[in-house]
Amino acid sequence: MAEFNPLTADATLKQLAGNEEQNPLRKYFRQPKVHITLPSKGKYYPEGALHTPETGEYAVYAMTAKDELSIKTPDALLNGSATVSVIKSCIPDIIDPWQMPSIDLDAVLVAIRIATYGEILDLETKVPGTGEDRSFAVDLRKILNKLVTSNYDDVVVMGEMTVGLRPLTYKEFTSAALKTFEEQRIFQTINDDSIPDAEKLTAFSESFAMLTDLTVSMLAKGVIKVTIGDTVVTNPEHISEFISNVDKEFYQTILDHLDTQKQKFGIEPFKVDSSDEDVAAGAPKTFEVPITFDQSNFFG
Questions:
Q1: 86, 77 contact by CB (below 8 A)
Q2: From CA 86, how far away is CA 295, in angstroms rounded?
Q3: At what angle do helices 170-190 and 197-222 cross, to 10 degrees?
Q4: Torsion sign (Cα): 234, 235, 237, 242
Q5: What pLDDT was estimated at residue 55?
Q6: How far is CA 148 from the centre of its chain?
Q7: Which residue from 143, 158, 106 is spatially nearest to 262, judged by alpha carbons?
Q8: What residues does 287 pair with on adjacent strands?
Q9: Pair 186, 83: CB distance under 8 Å
Q10: Under the phi-then-psi rule, with left for phi > 0, alpha for psi from -120 to 50, and beta for the rest, what region is 139?
Q11: How many Cβ atoms sit within 10 Å of the Cβ of residue 90?
């Protein structure tokens, strides 16, 4: 038997690769439509979860037909798998969207929406006070610009203590949302008149305890470091125990700070000025229209 020569084998593989027929349609494959910076500025991603281009701007491709089908599957949307699939398809530099900081989510989805359908989002709503249907055009570029220029404040100072924070990952964010959804179903059970009151009380107590534990757990995951003088604590178990045993003032301060950061990276409602005709018919002078990520209108 001839001796294996790795140099010859390598040359053979290169030759075979060179002989592979190139797809003549490759030049018609989709091209990036948008380039964005991320609200996180690339921070908070674990190693291997993000590829950062030299320019710091990430290419965004339009959705494929397969992407559109997956984003309209209710179960896949609920558990986050459809969103992850679409992000990997449309922004390949985000290698593992599950590890993406949640503060990047809205900006990423808005960019994909712009790349796929254009810069204008048409909203339809009923005017409060009159019930009349109205249509409004929202410029998504303005929304995207606001999101990518916001800054995440990841430090809170309280007396001699400095607390380092991070946004939740998309995986953690989705898990929390699923648990909250499950608890909401329990509350629906409580309103079922066919269930005995004793069972309702038990279900409510269990649901309330689980939601409380969830809130504390999510807050603890968002704290990555506590510094007091020369003492630096980064052990997640120690931090979790600490969060479970601090006084209400400390807990509320961190919770309020995280809520403020969350609002900075969310999409604000669209503000509408009512026409004179609508005001005369009973509408307020101004009102707000929420911009939601409903798959039936945001993506299609």
A1: no
A2: 13
A3: 170
A4: negative
A5: 93
A6: 13
A7: 106
A8: 272
A9: no
A10: beta
A11: 26
E-strand stretches of the chain: 34-36, 58-60, 120-126, 133-139, 155-158, 161-165, 223-228, 231-233, 270-273, 286-289
Structure tokens at 227: 């510094």
Q: Which residue type, as a one-letter code, is found at position 37? A: T
Q: Smallest Cα–Cα separation from 94: which of 170, 175, 173?
A: 170
- Read off the tokens for 60: 């965004």
Q: What SS3 class is residue 50?
A: strand
| 230 contact partners, CB below 8 Å, separation of at least 6 | none
SS3 of 143-193: HHHHHHCCCCCCEEEECCEEEEECCCEHHHHHHHHHHHHHHHHHHHHHCCC
Strand partners, 36: 58
Please, what is the end-to-end C-alpha distance for the chain in angstroms?
62
- In whole angstroms, what is the distance from residue 132 CA to residue 283 CA? 10
Phi/psi-derived region of residue 21, left when phi > 0, alpha when psi is between -120 and 50, beta in every other case: beta
DSSP-assigned letter for residue 234: -
* Tens of pLDDT, residues 210-240: 777 777 888 888 999 999 999 999 999 999 9
- Please list the rounded mean pLDDT of every run of 10 residues in the chain (300 residues): 52 57 88 95 95 95 90 69 92 97 94 94 89 90 94 94 95 79 64 70 70 79 94 94 90 91 88 90 91 61
